[in-house]
UniProtKB/TrEMBL annotation:
Belongs to the FAD-binding oxidoreductase/transferase type 4 family. One of its GO terms (biological process) is lactate catabolic process. Signal peptide: none annotated. Residues 49-277 form the FAD-binding PCMH-type domain. This is D-lactate dehydrogenase (cytochrome). Residues 541-572 form the 4Fe-4S ferredoxin-type domain.
Length: 958
């Protein structure tokens, strides 16, 4: 007989100080995060719930993880395992111990020529696919957040996605896994010895699972219900299909782990059976007059060879129709219009064409607003999918500031999709939700609905509760669908699991939980809960804080490209801190109620200790905006904060700007002295002395690094003359290249640029006062905005004169400076970035003899932001036989001179570089300061991409 109630109450928690003391004997103290600022920041996830962990722990290997789990168990502390924190339903928040699996958990091994891949929980999903791409394979799950979510979360939520369906999710493509259980034991299902030992040492658990499985298979009605539920996408509750699909207790256990949301154990490694990734693709954005016709089209397409059918209603399209590159006709669609993004793939262009024609044939009887047209253009194809994958954050960004955004994820039986959508829409309107947005995987009957929700006004929480109760009844009971198709149960649907599954199946889940976690310490209140109001508690505030970031919904898409993500904070976490400060200051100003002691302490800690994490270690490179669906650049917020903090230094900035040529001469003198010093003292002594001076100055004095070059030969600029050539270019050497010369193995960037332009047949014009001019970035990056504007105006004046009011192009030899110039200089000036100019204008003029060497390429932040990554790589590939582009490195973190003042930022950002470029002869980039940091941490020398082009080219033939 199945027990219908298992205690869900965890034991009393022991003293936190005692737990910390115990953990300090097992882990380095710096990996136990106790301060209130970082606890709040690290506890933030993508959901609309917030709990602040009492302690954040960062184990870096399995042994440390076991120690943490054992200590928490002994002290009665609940624990939650966190990978990327992109989950949407509150699975990864806790007020207990948050265990982060990031560094140390990024191991990845391709097996059997790509047929399998073994991954750590900290590997980003897209990274796994990058490793598999050379084999024409990928992992089965493909959630919209795959470029930021991690394998641990993908498996723990059984996330699926657009092209995954039910056949290719983690449950069905699982080969083996390693898991740590609450008692500290480790099971590796790929290791026969581990399995044998586990059967012996955990006989009650294994036999208990087998007994439950046998009982379920003999219960005809329950078995039929389970089979029905899993013909749909379904992540509500535990994977009860494992009780029918398998009879062996270890097989049942391993598949129960998929989708268990960290409530049964912690996955430390997962091996997938991979799936083919056809090389040829096409997509069509089909427009239908209403939701009903789009749903009918989806049903018809289910019988074809399409890979994905993504539905987007009119409100969803309205949220993205302004995105760059989107078709103009989206803005004029009728109110009920609905789009289907249809994807077809094949091994050849002919196969794709055949699939496209098949789609058009089966849809002939269904009205569309425009003729169906498939595109194979890679840019258009990528744009369609970028918009679809960024739809949830983009929708959330148009909400009223101060409200949160709710996303839920249901699935109807496909034959009921049209009726289900109509009923769902009627329920929204009945409860006063007029601005709900629908989108999702129509091929599987899987729909996401998104709406803004404020909980502060009277009656709003009750209105939301009534809506969710009706939605749960409608989807789970009336239509026999699933309340959570692919986002995991989480906190928002935990109170409704029993409603969907029924009392008997729900009791099975509690029994499973009791076998693994009788003390209810593993992620309690997630998945199963006796609290009917759980979904209405611990709601995350999103107060107005700054117009730059107010539209952020904390999705976390930005984090993967942030250079400080492993050192201090990410953009999402910086925004969380700024918001909490704004919330508390608003409460304080209102005076309705006194802040608690903890809140006052938090504000004091923010004022005293946030500078390093929030500001000092932010590169302000803008890379976060390249991944943000609504283009939020958190660096702009940090720069504004710097400007406010440094208002008193305006006079100093003005003095430096007024004597800028003297400042650069001083810097070159310093480089000459350091070159002498390194010869006299050696590297070790120079490092020790400069590190000490850097610490004593509070990071104000730069720290010496071996990659520092000699002083630049500024006199080169005086030798440039007019040769009477018809093609002319204005060359503006950045202040970095006017200061930083060669490192002994390369030539100064100015020298290379001038020779390359001469080789390509250009006459070069140098603007007047080149030593005094600056684009302003050196000032802007330090929060000295007024002087940055002043220097930009000076430069603008001289470049207009030199270029004859824009008649000639203006070449910048450093990419970040060209980006700064484009944003601040006269529109008449044809500002040229070095990579774009070299690719578009120099290559056609030069005869190439590619180097027979392996060359590493680092695409700088500014090049990424300008969309030049493709041309950057193409330029390098034209100049070298073998080009390596490290996939997991975005920004190098050098950030102007931060690599010298905050060298740990550069080191953290490039921690994987040396391994990634092993075997390369040298590397190239397009920012002189970045090249210093890359050289410092790679084991090879990095030069300008122009240097590579010069080496590989001959003068063009007349």
């Amino acid at each position: 007989m199945i027990a219908h109630h298992v205690s869900s109450e965890p034991p009393p928690r022991g003293p936190l100080d005692h737990l910390i003391s115990t953990l300090c004997t097992r882990l380095p103290e710096e990996r136990l995060i106790r301060d209130p600022l970082r606890r709040l920041a690290y506890g933030t996830d993508a959901s609309f719930y917030r709990l602040v962990p009492s302690l954040v722990v960062r184990p870096e290997n399995e042994q440390e993880l076991v120690s943490v789990i054992e200590a928490c168990r002994e002290e009665g502390w609940p624990m939650t395992f966190r990978a990327a924190g992109t989950s949407l339903s509150g699975q990864a928040v806790t007020d207990g111990v948050l265990i982060q699996l990031h560094q140390g958990w990024r191991h990845a091994t391709v097996l059997d020529d790509g047929a399998r891949i073994r991954l750590g929980p900290g590997v980003i999903g897209a990274r796994a696919n990058e490793l598999l791409a050379p084999y024409g394979r990928k992992i089965g799950p493909d959630p919209a957040s795959i470029s930021s979510c991690m394998i641990g979360g993908i498996a723990a939520n059984n996330a699926s996605g657009m092209c995954c369906g039910t056949a290719q999710n983690s449950y069905h493509t699982l080969d083996s896994l390693r898991v740590v259980l609450l008692d500290g034991s480790i099971l590796d299902t790929a290791d026969p010895d581990s399995v044998t030992a586990f059967r012996q040492n955990h006989a009650p658990l294994v036999e208990g699972l087998e007994r439950i499985s046998a009982n379920v298979r003999t219960d005809v009605d329950l078995a039929r219900r389970i089979k029905h539920k899993y013909r749909l996408k379904n992540t509500t509750g535990y994977a009860l299909n494992s009780l029918i699909d398998f009879r062996d207790g270890v097989d049942i256990l391993s598949h129960l782990m998929i989708g268990s949301e960290g409530t049964l154990g912690c996955l430390t490694s997962l091996t997938y059976r991979t799936v083919p990734e056809p090389p040829c693709k096409a997509a069509a954005l089909m427009l239908f007059p209403d939701l009903s016709s789009a749903c009918r089209a989806a049903m018809v397409l289910r019988g074809t060879s399409v890979v994905a059918v993504e539905l987007m209603d009119r409100a969803a399209l309205r949220a993205v129709d302004h995105a760059p590159g989107m078709p103009e006709n989206l803005r004029g669609l009728p109110p009920g219009a609905t789009a289907l993004l249809v994807d077809v793939r094949g091994e050849s262009d002919a196969a794709v064409k055949h699939a496209s024609e098949e789609v058009q044939q089966v849809l002939e009887g269904i009205t569309t607003l425009e003729p169906i047209a498939f595109t194979t253009n890679p840019d258009t194809y990528a744009l369609y999918w970028k918009v679809r994958k960024g739809l949830f954050p983009a929708v959330g960004a148009v909400r009223e500031v101060g409200t949160t955004v709710v996303i839920e994820d249901v699935a109807f039986p496909i034959e009921c999709l049209e009726q289900g959508v109509a009923a769902l829409t009627e329920a929204f309107h009945r409860h006063g939700y007029q601005d709900v947005i629908l989108f999702g995987h129509a091929l599987e009957g899987n729909l996401h609905f998104v709406f803004p929700q404020g909980f502060e006004k009277p009656g709003e929480k009750e209105r939301y509760a009534a809506l969710m109760k009706d939605v749960a009844q409608l989807v789970a009971v009336e239509f026999g669908g699933s309340l959570k198709a692919e986002h995991g149960t989480g906190r928002n649907m935990a109170p409704f699991v029993e409603l969907e599954w029924g009392a008997e199946a729900y009791a099975l889940m509690w029994q499973i939980k009791a076998l693994f976690d009788p003390c209810h310490l593993l992620n309690p209140e997630v998945m199963l809960s006796r609290n009917p109001n759980l979904h209405l508690e611990n709601l995350k505030p999103l107060p107005a804080a700054d117009e730059i970031v107010d539209h952020c919904i904390e999705c976390g898409f930005c984090e993967v490209v942030c250079p400080s993500r492993d050192l201090t904070l990410t953009p999402r976490q910086r925004i969380a801190l700024v918001r909490e400060r704004a919330r508390l200051e608003e409460l304080q100003a209102a005076g309705d109620q006194a802040l608690s002691d903890a809140e006052q302490d938090w504000l004091a800690a923010y004022e005293d200790h946030s500078g390093y994490d929030l500001d000092t270690t932010c590169a302000a490179d803008g890379m976060c905006s390249t991944r943000c669906p609504v283009d939020i650049n958190t660096g702009e917020l940090v720069l504004r904060m710097r400007q406010e903090r440094l208002q008193g230094r305006a006079m100093l900035a003005r003095r430096i700007g007024h004597h800028f040529s003297g400042a650069t001469r001083f810097a070159r003198t310093g480089l000459r002295l350091q070159w002498i010093g390194r010869q006299l003292l050696g590297h070790r002594a120079m490092s020790a002395i400069s590190q000490g001076m850097n610490r004593l100055s509070g990071g104000q004095l730069p720290q010496w690094i071996p990659a520092l070059p000699k002083a630049a030969p500024i006199k080169l600029l005086g030798r440039v003359g007019d040769r009477g050539r018809p093609d002319k270019v204005v060359y503006f050497p950045s202040c970095a290249t006017r200061v930083l010369g060669s490192d002994g193995g390369s030539r100064a960037v100015m020298d290379v640029t001038l020779k390359l332009l001469d080789k390509a047949g250009y006459d070069v014009i140098i603007p007047a006062m080149p030593g005094h001019l600056c684009c302003g970035m050196a000032f802007n990056s330090k929060g000295m905005a007024n002087e940055a504007i002043h220097k930009a105006r000076e430069l603008n004046r001289e470049l207009l004169i030199a270029s004859q009011n824009g008649r000639y192009p203006v070449l910048f030899d450093t990419s970040p400076c060209s980006l700064q110039a484009e944003d601040h200089l006269d529109a008449r000036l044809k500002v040229q970035e070095p990579v774009a100019f070299a690719h578009d204008h120099l290559l056609p003029r030069l005869e190439l003899a590619p180097l027979n060497e392996r060359v590493a390429v680092h695409v700088t932040c500014s090049s990424h932001r300008k969309g030049l990554a493709g041309r950057f790589i193409a330029l390098a590939q034209a100049c070298a036989r073998d080009v390596v582009v490290p996939d997991d490195i975005a920004c190098c973190g050098f950030a102007g001179d931060k690599g010298l003042r905050v060298p740990e930022l550069n080191a953290s950002a490039l921690q994987t570089l040396a391994q990634a470029v092993e075997g390369c002869a040298f590397g190239v980039s397009n920012s002189r300061t970045c090249e210093m940091g890359l050289t410092q941490h790679s084991g090879i020398a990095y030069y300008s991409i122009l240097d590579l082009l010069d080496r590989a080219s001959l003068p063009a033939k007349a």
